[in-house]
Structure formats: structure tokens, C-alpha cells
Amino acid sequence: MDGLSRGYQYQGRLGQGMFGEVVKAYSTQMKKMVAIKVTDISKCTTVYIEKFLPREKDVLETLDHPNIVKTHKIFESPKGTVYMVMELCVKGDLLNYINSKLALLERFSHKLFTQLCRAVEYLHSRNVAHRDLKCENLFLDAKYNLKVGDFGLSKTLTYVDGRVVLSKTFCGTLLYAAPEVLQSLPYDPKVSDVWSMGVVLYMMLYGSVPFNCSNFKKQVQLQKKRRFNFPKDPPVSPEAKDLIRRILHPSVEQRLKVSEILASAWVSKEPVEECDGASTSAAATPPVGSSWDAEEGPSAPRRVEPAFESREAEHQIYLKLASVKLQTKRS
């Protein structure tokens, strides 16, 4: 890593991606630990270099919110490696945390989801859509506060005659993607962000996904028919269940807006007590990782399916599709 030695002491790798890695380092200038996203331009696709990387840099340089991973600095080495120096969230990502607990206490889920709502409200107020909200892209700091990160697929929206210009390409992750996205219909990325938030909330409370199908068409059918269930364990309040139903609505017209989520009975209620994450597991019998089928009864306990972690394959497929579209436009 040709540019990392200048003011940063390497402390180890946090993760590996298609075009580089995320490392932990000590900043001698800021005198604290940071996370650094290292992107090797020589390994990147043309569409990523020309489209996604500039978007990500532009978005990150303008954001400042307590529930969004802070970007301290972005610089490029003479050899073409891009470094994004960011806040280090020491408790890791939300997916791994949920996997370690199987499910979260409702009061802790309330805290995290409220923070997610505030972050997305801030993004949308600045006409920025994240377009890949999922547990892997949500992080926890030392005090178990939620931080939204990974803006690699984000987009600053444009408007014509007061109306948002709709997106037309698939963007995101299958299990979190809204039905209009999976059907390749023109969609408002803000509205689709809300759907992903609903999946995240369900994940927090139950430790599993509401719709779990590897086939695009079948996944859309489940979404349209609203074929998801609320397990008996762990016990979840009627207000939380009602909110999930209203967020995971297949109709974009009837799906809640972020402002409506914040005003909902469940989110707007005062928290029972401050929850710092020390005791966040929703213990239950059968184990809370189990799912429920109206006809078959409770299934065997399980954690999040491995498909959740195969993000690179989906991302690469998307970038290839986007690259083809970009080349078509040029020709």
C-alpha cells in the first residue's frame, strides 16, 4: 500500500473487496484509530472508475451526520491507489452482531432503527439515495450507536419539473431490494431505500429475513403477495409488526415515507431505558433464529443464510450489467 505509510500506521485488515480492501490504521495526525478503504484503480472496471467511484467520493465529502460513518480524508497516491480515511466503528457491522445474538431486544432495535431513520432522513433531505441499505452496510460504534456506511452505490438525485428522475437499473442486494427494483421498473431510489429499511428492521427483531428466495421472480411474487410471517418467538409488539407491514408494502404509493416512519406509534414512542448493547439478545424458546410458516410450523433454528454474505458476486454482476449499458450508450 504505497501511500498508507504517510501519517498512518497499519494495524491489520478489516475486510477484502473486489477492487481493494478495508484496513485498520492509527492516524498519527488525528491520534486515533481509523478505517481506511483502499481502492486499487488498476483492478477496477471502467464503469466503476468513471461512474461509481466519483459518485461515492462526491457524496462522502458532503455528508456530516452522527449516524453516518464520518469520512475524514480522501486522497490518491502517485500509483493511482485511492484512500478513503473513515471513522472506525469498533463493534463491527450489524449483520455480524445480529448473527452473534440471533435477534435483538425490541428496545435495542428501537434505538438502532430510529438512528437509521434519522440518517436516511438526512440523506434524502440532501437528495442522496443510498441504494444498498442492508445490515452489512450498517455499523456500530463503541457505544452501540448505528452508523450508515458504504456509499459505493449511492446517487445524488436530479429533478425535472419538480419530479425526481427515476432510476432504471438494478441496484442493491437481492434480499433487501424492493419489488420495483427487482422487476427493473423505473423507480424512485428514496422509496426503494425505505423498503430496505423495513427488511433491516425485520432482521433486527427476528434474526432472519422476511422474504428469502434466491430466484428473482419468486422473490417478487412473495413480495407482491406479502407472503411473510411474524414468528411467535421472540415476542414483538403489535406496533412494531404494524410498522413492518406498512413499510414492506409492494405499492410504492402506499409504502410509508421516512417522515411517516418517524411519526409512527412505534418509532415516536419514548424508549423504556437507554440500551447500550450490553444485553441485546432476545432470548426465547424456540431459539429466536427460527422462522415460522403458517402451514408447517416453526422451522429449525438458523442464523442468517450464507447468501447474505455473497455480496461481491451480486455487486460484480451489477457492475458488468452497468458496464454493458455504458458501452451501449457510447456506441
TrEMBL record:
State the source organism's domain of life: Eukaryota
Its UniProt entry gives the catalysed reaction(s) as: L-seryl-[protein] + ATP = O-phospho-L-seryl-[protein] + ADP + H(+); L-threonyl-[protein] + ATP = O-phospho-L-threonyl-[protein] + ADP + H(+)
The alphabetized list of GO BP terms reads: cell differentiation; intracellular signal transduction; microtubule cytoskeleton organization; spermatogenesis
Q: List GO terms (cellular component aspect).
A: cytoplasm
Which UniProt keywords are listed?
A: ATP-binding, Developmental protein, Differentiation, Kinase, Magnesium, Metal-binding, Nucleotide-binding, Phosphoprotein, Serine/threonine-protein kinase, Spermatogenesis, Transferase, Ubl conjugation
Top enzyme class:
transferase
The reply on keyword Cytoplasm is no
Keyword Metal-binding assigned to the entry: answer is yes
Task: Name all Protein kinase domain ranges.
Answer: 8-267
One family from Pfam that matches here is Pkinase
Q: Which InterPro entries match?
A: Kinase-like_dom_sf (IPR011009), Prot_kinase_dom (IPR000719), Protein_kinase_ATP_BS (IPR017441), Ser/Thr_kinase_AS (IPR008271)
Any one Gene Ontology molecular-function term assigned to this protein's record = magnesium ion binding
- What's the name of the protein? non-specific serine/threonine protein kinase
